[in-house]
Design brief:
There is one protein chain. By secondary structure, this protein is α+β, with helices and mostly antiparallel strands. It folds into 3 domains: 46 residues; 67 residues, 434 Repressor (Amino-terminal Domain); 38 residues, no CATH class. Helix content is 49%, strand content 14%. The strands form 2 sheets. It has a 3-stranded antiparallel beta sheet. A two-stranded antiparallel sheet has the order 1-2. The protein is elongated. It starts with a strand and ends with a strand.
Length: 170
């Protein structure tokens, strides 16, 4: 059973039995061991060249590039034409993906990642996606209003655009 007491300076302290201390720290040691193993694995990947490190200037270039593909292709010293030939697509398609006008399918992006010696995750920009429910709430609003004579009507706005609102009597 823990004993609570105070130091001569007035700080609270707890005295635990060895068994209680070991029970509290055993999980932490396992976690620390796993973290250290992962860190050592990353350091080994860096030393072997399997893990790529960017300088702060290169990281800034990556962040300011229109798309990650544009940065990585230039970083690897490849032309759009060379990349397109190596994966079997048109150079214009690579250009459209780099400019962000097209996204490319998973197979194409995976092939590009292999050629550029990066992971697929390095090519994909993760954008928060609204749930379908939230999207529907934003695009359609329903309300009921009383009309003259006690009739009720439903006002329905379809998409948020220049479309007109319609009133339908119930």
């Amino acid at each position: 059973m823990p004993v609570m007491t105070k130091t001569p300076q007035g700080d609270d302290i707890v005295i635990l039995s060895r068994a209680e201390y070991d029970a509290l720290t055993v999980g932490r040691r396992d976690e620390d061991t796993a973290d250290a193993a992962r860190a050592n694995s990353i350091l080994a990947d860096i030393e072997s060249g399997a893990e790529i490190l960017l300088t702060s200037e290169q990281a800034s270039q990556l962040l300011s590039a229109k798309t990650p593909l544009a940065f990585w292709r230039k970083h690897r010293g490849m032309t759009q034409e060379a990349l397109s030939k190596s994966i079997g697509v048109a150079q214009g398609f690579v250009s459209e993906i780099e400019n962000g006008t097209k996204t490319g399918d998973v197979q194409t992006l995976a092939a590009m990642a292999r050629v550029l010696a990066i992971s697929l995750d390095d090519l994909v920009i993760v954008k928060p996606v609204e749930s379908a429910k939230k999207a529907r709430k934003k695009t359609r609003k329903f309300s009921v209003m009383n009309l003259a004579g006690g009739r009720r009507a439903r006002l329905r706005a379809t998409k948020r655009s220049s479309r007109t609102k319609s009133i339908s009597a119930r």
